[in-house]
Amino acid sequence: MKHDEPELIQVLEDFRRRFDVPAVGAAIVDSGGVVSCEVAGERRRGEAARVTVDDQWHIGSCGKAITALLYARLVETGHTSWGATVADLLPDLAQRINPEWSTATIDDLLVCRAGMRANLGLRDMKAAWIDERPLDDQRTLAAVEAMSRSPRRPGSFRYSNLSYVVTGAAIDRVAGESFERAIQRHVLDPLGITSFGFGAPSDIWGHRPRVQLSGTVIGRGAPADPQDPRSDNPVVLNPAGRFHLNLRDWATLQRVFLVPGILLQPASVERLLAVPTTAGRGMAMGWAPTKSPEIAPYGQQGSNTMWAATALMNPDRTRTAMVVTNDGRTRVLLTQAQLAQVLLEGSP
């Protein structure tokens, strides 16, 4: 691994100054391992402490691909199956959910085509931040609430964090242990990943936007204390994207998609990356088509409005570029993708 790539360091410093982010990191990984990994900037805006390559970064909804990967592992280890319905996965909730959900499958949930609402309601979000019940109980109640009413246009794509919360509730059951323990046992331990955790990391601070209007996050805001529960989404949303880890460990997870056989069989990787062929926009299982398929047909982006993360994979699945910042402004998220594309193409 190269920690002293002068060209990459310079590119990151230029990015940081141009877009006024406290810190930025990037990694490039190929089928052989990490090609380059570097970081630049401050752990907290205006303070002297600098980020290091060992620091953890929040990756937001890029974590959805990891949740889907976990489910694929559980299929391969005989705990469950593809095409399993909500009725199969949540049999104890049959009397508490609308029967119209009974035929929705895990595949529908993971590609956001089950008819699920996008998020918890505002009242439920506020309650979730102070909920101290066990996480599997919280996910069960969120699943019941989400499916107590009829699906909304099942079969059509609607990006949904709730779909992944319900997936987490399913994993609690099929794994025979909590989602959090299952991801450790079936994904992190086999890959030797040690920096993974949930919620805001402790060393690098995310930075809040000044204004959030209609989904657009603008304005350079204040740092968010990781001890504050509102420095991230409520814990019930773990499966939807409350993960942090360092860049090297994220690169290790990305190699699972580049080198079938490391953790998953080729057929599982193909399923995770397949976008449904029905008309209209859509996503695969945590991955999504990009606007530049000739350069990067597969992409991930995530933000909790205080952090931003991007990963792009090239067409022959031999190389992935990742960019992270502790600043979640919409402008930063968009320009991250441009930087990741440059790195993916091999320059610098």
Q: Could you say what the CATH architecture of the largest domain is?
A: 3-Layer(aba) Sandwich
SSE-based structural type: alpha+beta
**For the terminal residues, how far apart are their CA atoms?**
16 Å
Number of helices: 12
Number of domains: 2
Oligomeric form of this entry? single chain
- Largest beta-sheet details: 6 strands, antiparallel
Count of extended strands: 11
Fraction of residues in β-strands: 15-25%
**Largest sheet, order of strands side by side?**
2-1-11-10-9-8
Q: Give the helix proportion (percent range).
A: 25-40%
Low-confidence stretches: 1-5
CATH class of the largest domain: Alpha Beta
The CATH homologous superfamily of the largest domain = DD-peptidase/beta-lactamase superfamily
Gross morphology is: globular
Radius of gyration using CA atoms only: 19 Å
The average pLDDT value, as a whole number, equals: 93
Topology pattern, helix = H, strand = E = HEEEHHHHHHHEEEHEHHEEEEH
Could you tell me the CATH topology label of the largest domain: Beta-lactamase
